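Researcher: Next sequence.
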Amino acid sequence: MLAWALALVASAGQGAVAPKPLFRDPVRDGAADPSTVYDPATREWLMFYTNRRADLPLEDPKDVSWVHGTAIGVARSKDGSRWRYGGTAAIPSSCTGPTLWAPEVQRFGDVWHLWVTVVPGVFRDWNAPRFLVHLTSPDLVNWSCGERVELGSDRVIDASVVALPGGGWRMLFNDERAGKTVRQADSADLVHWRVGKTIVETPGEGPKLFRWRGRWWLVSDAWKGLLVQRSDDGERWTGQEGYLLGEPGEAATDRAKGQHPDVIVAGDRAYLVYFVQQEGEPEAARDPRWGRRSVLQITELHERDGVLSADRNRPTKVRLSPPPDVSSP
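Model: Next structure:
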């Protein structure tokens, strides 16, 4: 009896079981490309995401205007397992445009930073310029225009930005003019960037750079699952065989490959947040447009001998605590 009680307590201490889906946008049903941060002012977790117009009625199946004209949605949670819709981010149109993709939100010092992919219009095909815009905020609510990020290409998307241990910052981004590869750029001021080497030669998008368990990790969307690389110094990278979440999951709403990840590091634990298109659901057999819909899911990452794994079919117990370097105002 004592052993059973201790096991129950230990299990509860691991966190609450996250539902599937983790979050579904109640307005357009097209949540994708998450970026998750802790807000000390509200003591909540905020998830910024691309708010695709998955419910847009279109006669031409090749018409992709439903992934244009998109706002950045916001979801909120007290514990990281139960999320509620929080509207859309108040991003000024004067420095961005009608189509916003793939938010990247980070706090450096006392300032919140947002990098967002901008497409200057609503297009029916994929042939349009795309670029990154940098904005700042004191409170995650009121955003001020910064600069267009100059990276030597007119087709760049999907920023991931981290502070470097020795000072300065690094951005990974997808350069569509360079074969959809992932490249890096460094900055001393978060405004001017020096483009460096290519990190991922495999075509894809949605890179996420993070530090965990004494290593640098990079997870990116290779369109057939998530590609993983690791590095001891952030410079020399080793690729991991295979792909995470390449096989469809078993649970309802999770029955397609995982795409465009975010990673939440919570002490010794790390969680992979990803989006899933809904073409694997029964509704898609009756409605060919159902596959446009997408939801956000979460699974825990596990590391062993420098290899990451994730089992999307096991219940995910989420326990998030405020980052140690973030204090309440």
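Model: The helical segments are 2-13, 282-286. The radius of gyration is 19 Å.
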